[in-house]
């Protein structure tokens, strides 16, 4: 009997004929499932700087990332963070941006009214635009508006060219928007002007 069983064992050696999961398969499956899940927010890296801290032994280099996140509808946020490498800095900045989201009242793919915000040295002016105009903005303002649901907008960046300040000023200008239903019919429509240090 033992001799009769041996040939059977030889015809199906361990690992052949039977499909076993590859080692570490569960981890790969988890990773794939995480990638396939739809992302609620879209991230855009605006700028990455290398910053140095001078210590007794020389300089210690780190990276500073400026990231904007938005849901392509009515939410947007900006975050700045530092990290030992670029990926760490971007991940930290994304977390900061998600914690400081601003809800924008939209009016037919544009903003309800004009707003001019001064934040530190940066001044940003945004205006509603007619359908078909597109986003008339440069650099940082375009990146911030690009992750929102706004499709038509006029803007001008005045004053400082510091990207961080321009990004925060743009978000403040969007935060200053008042829904049309709250001021329509009022004699003086809002023209937001806000100064902060």
In short:
The chain is an alpha+beta fold and 197 residues long. 31% of the residues lie in helices and 32% in strands. It has helices at 2-11, 25-36, 86-99, 139-146, 163-175, 180-183, and strands spanning 42-55, 58-70, 75-83, 102-103, 115-119, 122-128, 135-136, 153-159, 192-196.
Task: Give a description of the structure.
By secondary structure, the chain is α+β, with helices and mostly antiparallel strands. It has a single domain (42-196), classed as 2-Layer Sandwich (Ribosomal Protein S5, domain 2), CATH 3.30.230. The chain has six helices and nine strands, in the order H-H-E-E-E-H-E-E-E-E-H-E-H-H-E. Strands 7-8-6-5-9 form a five-stranded mixed beta sheet. Helix 4 (139-146) crosses helix 5 (163-175). It starts with a helix and ends with a strand.
Percent in helix:
25-40%
Encode the helix/strand succession as letters. HHEEEHEEEEHEHHE
Count of extended strands: 9
Neighbour order of strands in the largest sheet:
7-8-6-5-9
Key traits:
6 helices; 32% strand; 9 strands; 197 residues; five-stranded mixed sheet; Ribosomal Protein S5, domain 2
